Amino acid sequence: MSQHLGELLGQNHPKFKQSIMALERRSGHPNNDIRLSSQIIQSTYQKIRELELDPRDTTAKEIYYALNHKLKRDEVNIINNIRTLAATRVNAEANFLDGLLELIKLLDIKTSCLSVRPSVLKRIFKQLPPKKAMKALNYRSIDSMLKHEPMPLILMAINIFESEVYLNNFYFKYKKLDNTSFESRSLTVITKTNSKWTTILNDVKESTDLTLVSCYELASIIILPVDDNPKPGSVITMLINLISEIEVILAVSSYLKIHQVSGQLGKKLYQITCNEPYSEINLLNEQIELKKVTEKITATNVSKYLAHLPHLQKEDLKYENIRQNFSNILGDLNFWLDSHFLGYLNSSEVTSLNVLDVAHNLSNDLTYEKRQISHFRHALSQELTSMYLKPEHIINWLFKEVTLSKNEVLEFN
């Protein structure tokens, strides 16, 4: 089964198999590679049947084009459902972004997020006025810009217009933030429709191919403009990225809450904002995403060792199932939300069922021979490594700089 995983991951060489065998030995031979391979085969075959195809009598190319066709059809239904939300809850214009904001309200995310106080960021901006961003936004006074523009958008603007030297100096200030610099707030999603920001956000979208931008220090997500006639695949890409980033922001917040007792809160925020939100746990030469670590915490007995920490509530370790809530509202997402690490292997050729790969292939009208599978391989690699993630790994990492009570005994069952 290691061979099957190796072929799916493009790592069908002896070193990969040896690494899996070593992890199996250290973990007490749980046969995670066999279980994951079996799950992928069974779940992938079930998805193919849902496409009304016979997995044992269908070519990989037929599956590829069937996936493209299904995603295109599902996306039309999703767009119509979101516009209907706007029409029934906002106004008759049925604007897509209005409907998206209503959809997010229906998710009813109750988990509070730890974020930097806006007053603290204002103080930093006054110490380091972002002159290039101010000029781009037509402001002569930093006070005027801070008064009229949303803070997440200002933070995005400095990353667009300011120099690397400025950004290094700005974010270095985060290292000195202490617990009093933070507050609890609800996760927010921002869309801008005025001409000034629409132009800037469209430029960001065109130059980066992003659909949204996250602001971890303010627990905010900025949705980039959605075209009136979007390219096939682009709306589902945005929705899947939105789901993922909501989960990441909640995971980042939980991680920061844990570190309120370490005296390193500002340093931890600096590391997250200047790098991708990954943990320092490395298995199979793969850094594990912070989100995957948080999922592991909620699924194992690690949570009982964290629940005693001040500032941390049990619900912080058990935030809502965002994917399930989205699926309940938009049923056409059901097929895609649990297919992120599924792939069809035939004669050493891989066809990805990951929705981001399928959307990219559809949006760019790629042939089967030029198909993308990178999102699938990343998701599968994360899934595989997280299966070997033990409570000891998490505790040792989280508490490297957090002092436990001398009487606290950690036992792993």
Q: Note the total helix count.
A: 20
Radius of gyration: 23 Å
The strands making up the biggest β-sheet line up spatially as 3-5-4
Shape: globular
Structural class: mainly alpha
Sheet with most strands: 3 strands, mixed
What is the straight-line distance between the termini? 27 Å
Strand fraction equals 5-15%
Helix and strand run: HHHHHEHHHHHEEHEEHHEEHHHHEEHHH
Number of strands: 9
What's the multimeric state?
A: single chain
Low-confidence stretches: 404-413
Instruction: Output mean pLDDT.
Output: 89
Give the fraction of residues assigned to helices. 55-70%
Structurally, the number of domains stands at 1
Description:
With 413 residues, the protein is mainly alpha-helical. The chain has one domain (2-398). It is built from 20 helices and nine strands. It has a three-stranded mixed β-sheet with strand order 3-5-4, with helices on both faces. Strands 1-2 form a two-stranded antiparallel ribbon. A two-stranded antiparallel ribbon has the order 6-7. A hairpin with a 2-residue loop joins strand 8 (343-346) and strand 9 (349-352). It is globular and about 65 Å long. The model is unreliable at 404-413 (pLDDT under 50).
